[in-house]
Structures are given as C-alpha cells and as structure tokens.
C-alpha cells in the first residue's frame, strides 16, 4: 500500500485538500507535464480547445465510461500557477496547482478547495493516485503500475476520514 501524504486544511472555515509532490526536474518541465495535452495523456487525460478563451474540454483517459468535462481556466501564470474549475455531471470542482523550484527540484502543491467531509475520503485517495501516476510518468516509470484499487481506494479512506472527523 502507498502511504497517504495529503492533508485536509481548514482556511477561513473552508476545508481544502492539499497534496505535494517533488520532482528532480526544472519547473518548466513539470509545468509542461501538467499542462501539455500529450504529456498529460500519460498520467491523467488530455484537453482540446483554445486556452485563450479561458475554457477547454478535458477528457479523463483512465476512468470508466465517458468522463468529458468542461474546464474553466480561472488563473494561469506559467510556470507557477494554474487554477481551474471543472464542470461535469452537474458538479463543479475547483482545482489549483502551484509550482516552485529550488536548486533544480520542483515542488508541486495541488489544492482542491471546498472539499466536504463526505467527499474527502474519496477525492483524497483519487488525487493521491493521479499525482503518483504523474510522478511515475515523469521519472521514467510506467504509470499503469500504479494500482488504484490495491493501494489507494479504499486503503487511504481512513487517513482522510480521520482528518475531517477528528
């Protein structure tokens, strides 16, 4: 089992999921891995459209069924910050990425604000899974080796449940 690294923080009365990953790579390379459709396709999905319109269509590649989403780009400050809102199946999720580099090591901080208590135990393991797939893709491994059902869900649920009930 993978060890959960994410945490639930409460800021101004609002819960948010926070997960960090580090990369022995320059910030521009990590930015490309999380924004270029071809690079993203290795670990999560791909997008199409014109980002200049502040909207793109995103398609998850590793989910069951059709997982097409409309994505609103709220902020984009390459190569440091990306904030989006996804819209699918009547739900909206705010997602944010912050990147920083020190001595050739880039830290990615993923945040999902407004995570409800009931959602935390599900979205926490899901984002741990996808971010580990990103790490695997960017370190030369095979993202397919990252096993959601064996290592993430339900294995990580208690970690997140305890943070919102404890």
TrEMBL record:
Q: Which CDD domains match?
A: SRPBCC_CalC_Aha1-like_6 (cd08899)
**Do you know which InterPro entries this protein is assigned to?**
ASHA1/2-like_C, START-like_dom_sf
Q: Which residues form the Activator of Hsp90 ATPase homologue 1/2-like C-terminal domain?
A: 24-136
Q: Where is the signal peptide?
A: none
Stated family: Belongs to the AHA1 family.
* Record-given protein name: SRPBCC family protein
Q: Organism classification, top ranks?
A: Bacteria, Bacillati, Actinomycetota, Actinomycetes, Propionibacteriales
